[in-house]
Every structure is written in C-alpha cells, then in structure tokens.
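Support case: manganese (II) ion complex. Customer-provided input:
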Amino acid sequence: MSGMRRVVFASDLHLGSNPTLDDFTRDVEFEGFLDLPEFKPSGDDRVELVLLGDSFDLWQAVSEEECHQEKSKRIDLAYVAASEAVRLDGVRGKHLRWFEALGRFAERPGCRLVVVPGNHDHSLIDPTVQARVARHLGLSGSDRLSFVNFYEDSMLRLYADHGNQYDHNNAYDDFARVDWRQDCRGYYFVKLFLNRIEYRDPRIDNSPSGWGAVWHWLRRTLDFTLLATALRYFWQYSTDGRVPKPVTPFAARGIAGAIPQRGLLDDPAAPQLLVAGSSARSAERFFSADPVMEEFLREAYDASPEVRVAVNEILEAQEKHEGVRSTTRGAARRRAPHGKPARRPRAGKPRPSTRRRREVPKPIGASRGVAAERRIFGPPEDVAWAEHLFSDKPYFRDKLSPGAFQYVIFGHTHGALEHRLSNGATYLNTGTWTTEDSGPPVAVAECPPGGTPTAKLLRFKNGRLE
Ligand SMILES: [Mn+2]
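Agent response - structure generated as follows:
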C-alpha cells in the first residue's frame, strides 16, 4: 500500500552569478523552505520537488565586461553545452548554500528532485549541462534527480511545464536542440539590450511581461542619462544582424488596434519608429506608435542634451546609410585608387551634435492622463495558454482531456495565480522567487492513499506554507 503523494512546484528563481544582475537573494530562506515538514516524508510517503523552469538564469549569468560593453556587436552570443556548464559553475559559486540544501533534500528517504528547463535555463535539455547540475548538487548518477521537459502525473491528474513555449517571444522552434542561432527572441533581447540596462538600473526586472514596460519605466524614472543609453542600445539591438527576429512584448495586445504595420511596430512603447529609418516615420509619429511614449520622447529630446545626442547619432547614421544606398555611384567615385574607401581625416569627423534637428517634432503638450487609459484588459495571457492545452495540441503532448487532467501548472510570467478555467479545471501559476513582496509562491499537489488529488497555490511565509 503506497502512502501520501506530494509534489511541490517552484519556478523562476533566476539564480545568477553576476553581482548586479542576479535576482535571487533567498538562499537562506530556500534552505528553511526545504526544512519544512512537508519535505520530510515518513513511512511510505513520497515527496517530489519540481523546479519548473528558469531556476537558473544563464542569460544573465554574464561577465562584468559584458555589462560594460558599449557596442552590442562585441557581445558574444555564441554558446555550446560545455560553456553553459561553465556558466553554472559561476552560479554555484554564488549560491553554495542553495545547492547544498537542495542536494541534502534529494538524499532524504522518499524524496526526489525534478528539474524542468525554462527559457533562461533552456540548455538544461543537454546531458552535459544536466550532468554539471547533478555534480553541483552532489547527485551525480543518482536516481533521486531527473530532468524532464514537462511533468505530468495521472494519479494527481496534473500537467505542468514552464510555459515559455506558448509565449511567442520565448518559444523555441525545436525545444530539444541547443543552438544559440536558434535561440528564442528573448535571448537576444536580454543579452544585447536588457542586461546592459538592468546593470545600470537593477530595478528593471527580467520578467517577460516587464519587457514591454521597460520604456514606460524609463519614462517614470526621468533618468535622461539612462534613457539616452537605452536609445543607443535599442538601436544597436535593432540593427544587429545576428538577431533573427526581434521581440514583440505583451503590451502590444492592449492597443493592437493602434498598430498600423504589424511586425515593425509590435511593441508600441519602444522607440521602434526612430530605429526603423526615415520611411517608417511621420510628423505625427516620429519615435513610437504609443502616443504617451511619443510625447515623452519629444519632451526628452527638447529637455536633455544627452537624449538629443543619442537621437541625432541614430538619425545621422541612418541618413548616411540611406544616402549611400541611393548614391552608389557617388560612393564609388569617392573611393581611393587602391580600392579601399577613402578615410575622412580624424580631426574633421563631425561629432553628433546636441543641436535640435528640425525634423524631430516638438511636444504637443498632450495630457499624461492617457497613460492611465492604456491598461491591458482581460485575464492574463497565460490563462489562455492553459485553456489551449484542452482545446488544441499543445507543444509537449497531445491535448489534455478535462476528465483526466484537473490541474495545469505553468511558471514563466512571474504572476502567481490560481484560476478556474472554462472547463472547470484549475490553472496555477507558480510566480517567481525574485520579487520582495509577500512570501515566495509554490504550487502544492497532494493525493492521500486512495483519495482525491488536490492542488493549490501557497506561499512560504512565517516559516510555513500558507
Ligand atoms: Mn521563463
């Protein structure tokens, strides 16, 4: 006769190695969490801890040098399984207690650890990377540790995966392959843009729903130095030939009707029009498809010499690029006789100016109240992902039947949630451990011997799950 079955899900811990970018500060708390009576089964009872993705943040486990890099082209995007394993060494070095506590938990009678990859630790699909995690946990070769791309249990009537495969910015064409050139859109965005901005203002988080809000964050903080830097990095990101497809954050959903050209303008808040070139711009919309952002960037251009230099740099570079294209013959004539392009004398090279350029529209003094109206309506996006598991073939398996699966669990969005789906099943989101508010969330599924399974969202606070 088997005993009590318990599975605890936690996700989005985002353990890193970079002192500024690392979002996980709960090592001691995590040790206390694993010391709960819920993780100490007796007799025939069995307990599993499922780390449901983004446990490690390998996208942000980067060097100081990479964070300081002024040119995105000098940021190395390439990785292989072996170099990802080395990144994990850095994570372990910074979170020794976390690894030790987790290893001790898995060794207890009746306990097991299951690791599911997310997008920030996607390379965990590779056996080399898995072996490194096992070694760091002191669990090499142990059957107490397993790696799976998704978790399902018919007795608990439960299905779980990280959730990134339903988010078009973080989905992999082939989840089972490690190849940096095939990484999801989010990878390039984090490496080439977000890491360097977050390094300068660590309050900017790496949550996927936060991406669309980066520009609104910059608008609120009124840090023109950072804004100028962000404009420069965003331009670099947008023109980096190594990026196969740029990100299109969730924020687009709320004002989809306002987007004239899909694809180009999917993130209305970003200064997409500025970086896209003169043909994308008009007198009404020069910087952004989002009217609040447009007005703010016009104001910032007027108010800040730093922002003017950054914007002028982009405009001048585009002018040069667009000009060269239309006057190829002229460009050829300017070449030196030995075939190399004639170099301008250094002293004569014009520096981007702080002067206001006439083509940049002036602010119109629009009411800032508009910001309050552009809320995104309806339930969070991940609720629809959970609904789709029952109506469509989801990524990892055939569609779920409501009779067999009463519970669906995702992480990824950082928004902890318990929600009743339209078919009566329960959707749980395991949130994140990286924010400082209330206790860290976990989903707890239980089934007593011969009994009915349950699953609910709890928080670890006041030394217990409540
Ligand atoms: Mn994720």
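The CA atoms of residues 283 and 361 lie 6 Å apart.

Case will auto-close in a few days if no follow-up is received.
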